[in-house]
Amino acid sequence: MDKLNYKVLKESGYDGYILEKAPVKVLQFGEGNFLRAFVDYWFDMSNELVGWNGKVALVQPIAPGLADLINEQEGLYTLYLRGSENGEKINRKRVISVCDACYNPYVASDWEKIKEIAKSDDLEYIASNTTEAGIVYDPESTFDQVPPNSFPAKLTVLLYERFKAGKKGVVILSCELIDANGKELKKCVEKHIADWKLGDDFAAWIENENLFCSTLVDRIVPGRIRDPQEVAELEKEHGYVDPLLDVGEVFGVWYIEGPEWLAEKLPFKKAGLNVHVVPDVVPYKKRKVRILNGAHTGFVLGAYLAGQDIVRDCMHDDTIRGFMNKMLFDEVIPVLPLDKADCEAFAAAVTDRFNNPFVDHQLMSISLNSTSKWRARNMPSFLEYIEKFGKLPAALTMSLAAYIAFYSNDVVRREDNALINRRPAGNEYAVSDDAWVLDFYYAHKDDDAATIVPAVLSNEEMWGQDLTKVEGLVEAVTADLELIRKEGALAAYKSVL
Known about the structure:
This protein is an alpha/beta fold. The protein folds into two domains: 6-280, 3-Layer(aba) Sandwich (Rossmann fold), CATH 3.40.50; 283-495, N-(1-d-carboxylethyl)-l-norvaline Dehydrogenase, domain 2, CATH 1.10.1040. Helices cover 49% and strands 15% of the residues. It has helices at residues 6-12, 33-37, 39-50, 67-72, 108-118, 151-164, 181-195, 200-209, 228-238, 260-265, 268-271, 282-305, 311-314, 318-332, 340-354, 363-366, 370-389, 394-408, 435-443, 449-457, 460-463, 473-487, 489-495, and strands spanning 24-29, 55-59, 77-85, 88-96, 99-103, 125-128, 171-174, 211-218, 246-249, 253-257, 275-278, 411-414, 419-422, 428-431. The chain has an eight-stranded mixed β-sheet with strand order 5-2-1-6-7-8-10-11, sandwiched between helices. It has a three-stranded mixed β-sheet with strand order 4-3-9. Helix 18 crosses helix 22. The radius of gyration is 25 Å and the shape is globular.
């Protein structure tokens, strides 16, 4: 069976949307699964829905990469978006045709081609996802390297080429998972300009003609299908082999920080896609962390003690799902600085996302480093609720007790990188966290609830403050922990409904 390309695709009988030729409007640093299931998907949909008529040129950010394979397939790849929408199982196939070619900047001829694209009149956007380590200032990167070591250094050279060619600026869309990604990238570029003495005129052009956008991305992308039998069945169904086949969850949203005119310039609003230009992405990141990530951390530890193993099954348990929804709708959303209806719609989608029939998301994988996760994801909502309403939030308080229960339940032994505990069902499980956290819980392994709760809550290294000073908290968490230990986590979760 032949690999996917335009000729093979036509012969396969595929009848979906395909755009074979169009000008390159996006230069994208990154060719991995996430960008191909996210950024490239949105632009591909825009081609179909509103005739955007653009292509994306890909740059592999590190020397080993996918350039040869992508070019062999003429930029084509199959994308499956899988999950649950309004309780319905979704499995959508789309062949993505927005990618023009992929270039390896570590090959001198490709680096020259990338420079030519950077100077093109058609180019409007530069997108990137070079991992959290990608947006860093590297003093070892020099202007004359082929190519410069770091992504910001490469970008500086390309923007300088565009400036020298007398072209207008571009919009830079950073998708790296760091705070203020666009702003941090711009700082690195400005430092290279100063260190390389590229001139005040170029610095002014960067400031006045280009827009560095911080963005918030949200789509889970498992990427590969690992079951050889399923791969073989899909190849037979497709009529071609596609080693670039990509898989993402059906839910996806992209928040781009920028001025109002950017929403009209980008094709996404016209296409009715779930991509939004907003004046500040910080509140939306807070919403994601507090609702999506906070939901995970808030219910999974107790759910595991109650006998569950994967997230999807938790959504089929009325008590656990009800506990999660009470926490989100009654305690988290009321303290978020965003439109309540939007937050509620986002929270409602969480159940669908957690109910994904294609992903077996293990509770134990979510449990890693739960001390810092509860502090970052749940504690702000917990404290803000108390400040706003003058009382303890019942579900968040119970989730704190469930965290203590998970870390202290029937401790068996301390190993090098884990604390080995025993679940009520009898099997052992490994608690993974910082060594000092594990040492703390091992030292308190024989404590009753009345002893361990104030010890945990007063530990300022864990929480950045002494939580025993929160009125009524020691008593409430102690009572909740005693209930979990006596009647089980499921009964304890039910008690707050």
